[in-house]
Amino acid sequence: MSVSGKNSSMRSILRIAGPLFIFIGVVILIIAMVDFFSAFGSFGQPDKFYLFFLAIPFIFLGVIATSYGFMGAVARYKANELAPVAKDTINYMAEGTKDSVRTIARSIKEGISESEGAKVVCQKCGTMNASDSRFCKNCGTTLRKDKKCPDCGEQNDSEARFCDKCGFKFPA
After folding, report:
1. Domain map of the chain by residue range?
2. Residue 159: is its pLDDT beyond 50?
3. End-to-end CA distance of the chain
4. What pLDDT does 147 receive?
5. What keyword terms does UniProt attach to this protein (predicted)?
6. 105 touches 117 (CB < 8 A)
């Protein structure tokens, strides 16, 4: 028998035994109460007072067994009731915070681009240099590309004799 089959049979037993225990407990409790209150009229002692102490455990066990027998059904019901509320809450919060998230993302992007813009990479050796450096601190290569090719518009090193892109020969 599979685990779900064992669970199913146990659930069925609990769903039957729980209410049965409750019913037996309530019947015993009624018998004990009738005996207790009828003793007032005869001025005698109740004969079945001990049944109170038997009824309470029966009712308790019945309630526990019933709650375990219907636990899955109750959990599924609660989940079906709560899931739409949780979904609506999350959607409401997402909609309400969308602009804030965009602002944070924009700030992060600006911060990253500023930190990347603060450094210049040497094309020859790959060393990171300060953004205001004109020459590489490692190999001395010119970092600034401030000579624009009149033919293609490519920025070239200030000492370049030919354009990096199209080969245009700069005048000496």
Report:
1. 3-112, 134-172
2. yes
3. 94
4. 82
5. Membrane, Transmembrane, Transmembrane helix
6. no
106 pLDDT higher than 90: no
- Residue 93 exposed, middle or buried by CB count within 10 Å (0-12, 13-18, 19+): exposed
Would you state the pLDDT for residue 118?
Answer: 62
What is the reported pLDDT for 2?
47
Residue 2 in tokens: 């599979």
CA atoms of 34 and 39, how far apart (whole Å): 8
- Hey, what amino acid is at 39? A
Find, among 148, 153, 143, the residue nearest to 122 by Cα: 143
Long-range contacts of 63-70 (CB under 8 A, 24+ apart): 63/18, 63/22, 64/18, 65/14, 65/17, 65/18, 65/21, 66/14, 66/15, 66/18, 66/19, 66/22, 67/18, 68/14, 68/18, 69/11, 69/12, 69/13, 69/14, 69/15, 69/17, 69/18, 70/15
Q: Which residue has the tokens 């293609």?
A: 152
The tens digit of pLDDT for each residue in 32-69 reads 999 888 888 777 788 888 999 999 999 999 999 999 99
Greatest Cα pair distance in the chain: 133
Identify whether the C-beta of residue 143 lies closer than 8 Å to the C-beta of residue 120: yes
Residue with tokens 């779900």: 4
pLDDT band at 1 (very low <50, low <70, confident <90, very high): very low
